[in-house]
Amino acid sequence: MVVLSAQDSDANINSISPALFGAFPNMERLAASNLETLIPYISKVRNFGTKAKWLLEIAQTIQKDENIPLTMEGLTALKGIGRKSANVIMREAKVPAEGIIADLHVIRVSPRIGLIPETQDGNKVEKQLMQILPKEIWGEIGMSISFLGREICRPKPKCEECPINSICEYYRVNK
């Protein structure tokens, strides 16, 4: 699901997941598949052709669920998985974080609340956050900031509803 979610909405990915997981409940089943079989299940996803190739290559490389790597190095070696995706997978697998999830919400919100300077580079955002935040919160802080960005700190923010407006730089300057 993480590979499919890149450049697409959670709602869209969640809508296709029941049928997809029904047809491909594990890596073995996916590895034995092909593009013609997989594409109908993911055709509503942005860039589905490329993502289908990546998913099949990942499945054929891994072969079994228990072979899924759970390190940054192992995950980012797979097609279609960058640092953000690897951080999400590691968080969901409950393994120690090696980085901070830096999705488009984290990229927008982190500078607004005064944590880092503004940039559109997710890798730079992640590195800057890793330098200022304690490692023991890396696994959760990215998702926390992301949820804040999805629900409240939208492109047009709902500052009055925000639970952290008392410490927010954007709110302080714009209130």
TrEMBL record:
What cofactors does this protein use? Answer: [4Fe-4S] cluster
SUPFAM superfamilies found in the cross-reference section: DNA-glycosylase (SSF48150)
GO MF terms held by the record: 4 iron, 4 sulfur cluster binding; DNA N-glycosylase activity; metal ion binding
Please give the Pfam families that the UniProt record associates with this protein: HhH-GPD (PF00730)
Q: Does the keyword Lipid metabolism apply?
A: no
One Gene Ontology biological process = base-excision repair, AP site formation
Q: Where is the HhH-GPD domain?
A: 4-151
Q: Does the keyword Hydrolase apply?
A: yes
State the UniProt keywords alphabetically: 4Fe-4S, DNA damage, Glycosidase, Hydrolase, Iron, Iron-sulfur, Metal-binding
Q: What's the superkingdom here?
A: Eukaryota
Record protein name field: HhH-GPD domain-containing protein
